[in-house]
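PROTEIN DESIGN WORKSHEET
SECTION A - STRUCTURE
LENGTH: 220
TOKENS:
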């Protein structure tokens, strides 16, 4: 049995659900190390950090979509009520304006009211660095996509894109729409939070279909 977190509307709960078959990009999915239980309200449990942004949930064609919009002078983050170490996460993202990112193995810097740590980039510009690994508030770019990926990048601006990040020990892998983007070894952080970024400036980004699987520690 595989356990998943699912983004639900704020009127219901963030429930740990079980499913026998899950649709994922092509890679072996490991059994979770232990069950995780979160049963309180999604709206109350997710925490806003950093720059002000408007976060809203709505059902679109039977799927709950989280929208983040803002024009703040600094980055904002919506932090999930969970910390993980080794994991496999997928989420759909669509960006209309600005820049965004998926934080993982990150931390909240309470003194400066911001999130720092690893980020899987959401970049709709012609630079085509979506899926690259950035370290927010610390080192900056850790691993942009390789040149051969940039030349034929799978990210589709203005459309839904399926993001995936898998971390086991110091091994970090990212995919977009099933295509490998980054595969690196970096041991700067072994665990931390998950968060969704609403970048400074005029940003509008949407998220849906979040699934987070905890993996056995050290199993690569």
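SECTION B - SEQUENCE
RESIDUE ASSIGNMENT:
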């Amino acid at each position: 049995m595989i356990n998943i977190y699912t983004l639900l509307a704020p009127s219901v709960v963030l429930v740990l659900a079980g499913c026998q078959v899950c649709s994922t990009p092509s890679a072996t999915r490991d059994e979770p190390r232990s069950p995780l239980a979160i049963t309180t309200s999604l709206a109350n449990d997710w925490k806003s950090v950093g720059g002000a942004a408007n976060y809203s949930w709505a059902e679109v064609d039977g799927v709950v979509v989280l929208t983040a919009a803002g024009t703040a002078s600094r980055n904002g983050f919506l932090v999930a009520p969970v910390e993980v170490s080794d994991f496999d996460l997928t989420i759909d993202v669509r960006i209309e304006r600005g820049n965004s990112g998926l934080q993982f193995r990150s931390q909240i810097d309470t003194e400066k009211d911001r999130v720092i740590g690893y980020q899987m980039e959401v970049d709709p510009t012609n630079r085509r660095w979506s899926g690259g690994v950035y370290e927010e508030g610390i080192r900056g770019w850790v691993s942009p996509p390789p040149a051969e990926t940039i030349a034929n990048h799978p990210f589709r601006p203005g459309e839904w894109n399926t993001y995936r990040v898998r971390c086991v020990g110091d091994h970090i892998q990212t995919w977009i729409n099933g295509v490998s983007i980054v595969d690196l070894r970096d041991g700067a952080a072994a665990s931390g939070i998950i968060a969704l970024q609403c970048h400074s400036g005029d940003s509008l980004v949407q998220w849906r279909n979040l699934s987070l699987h905890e993996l056995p520690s050290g199993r690569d």
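SECTION C - NOTES
The two ends are 20 Å apart (CA to CA).
The chain has a mean pLDDT of 82.
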